[in-house]
Amino acid sequence: MPLTAPQLDRAIGAVLASAAGDALGSQYEFGPALDDAVTPVFGAGQFGHGVGEWTDDTSMAVPILDVLARGDRLEDAASREEIVGRWIGWAQTAKDVGAQTRAVLARIPQPFTEADVLAASRAEHERAGRSGGNGALMRTGPLALGYLDRPATELAAVAEAISKLTHWEQDSASACILWSAAIRHAILTGELDVRAQLSLLPAADAARWGGLIEEALMPGAHPRDFMPQNGWVVRAFQGALAAVVGASSLVDALERAVRGGADTDTVAAIAGALGGAVWGASGLPGEWVGVLHGWPGYSARDLRGQVEKVVSAGAL
């Protein structure tokens, strides 16, 4: 049976709301936390992105979405190599590329195989001593779409594989597994339940992340609480979760994420992927959707069309 209308709305929401959060947070990036009385608005980004233009967060998710829309599988090394190749091409003219991602892409030889990509990712991790930035988590929105009719364990394996292409650290992989699986669960059921995804992690990781999740679920928790170091995948995860859990609507979730300050576009993009999967694309104002655009020349309509192709290819 195909997706129900609400499920399809939530599937589209996982991508559109992530792009909307990305674009909304762009002009506030690197800024202070904002008071609840402040209503974030679309504006020119810190790196020159236009009003309603998404940044690297969504641009890196688009190749993943496009591969799935074509009906290809992310389990295939050829698919992952294509995604990396498109990232490399995008990065040559992008207005902004995350430091960790840029460093890894610069290490990849031409031509390359996935083994070369993983070697570059690991080498950069070893050089820096860490690779737990939020740059892999920000691009998870489309991942679940290809696994709505498959076991969550398959999605977890793919989420880890895609994460390690640029972020070798296990924190990044664990965050991507949990977030992708929570998005899948929300699309299918309309429920927000990140705790239930802990079973996909090894026991030791599950115990650690269980504690981190509880911190974000504390009554009154706000993305501002996790602003320090929210370029780190753990704090970005917690900030985005606090934004969604404490919200009354999808717009509220995205605005809360932006009010958290610092890495606003990325935290809002992460929050948007899960929030969109909970409330659906119908929760976005039409004026927001109308201005959304970005690399590679896509509009919100293009993103919606690609999502519809994905779910049609893997209908339940």
UniProtKB/TrEMBL annotation:
Keywords: Hydrolase
Pfam families: ADP_ribosyl_GH (PF03747)
InterPro entries reported for this sequence: ADP-ribosylglycohydrolase (IPR050792), Ribosyl_crysJ1 (IPR005502), Ribosyl_crysJ1_sf (IPR036705)
Segments traversing the membrane: none
Keyword Heme listed: no
Family: Belongs to the ADP-ribosylglycohydrolase family.
PANTHER family documented for this protein: ADP-RIBOSYLGLYCOHYDROLASE, ADP-RIBOSYLHYDROLASE ARH3
Protein name (database record): ADP-ribosylglycohydrolase family protein
Organism lineage string: Bacteria, Bacillati, Actinomycetota, Actinomycetes, Micrococcales
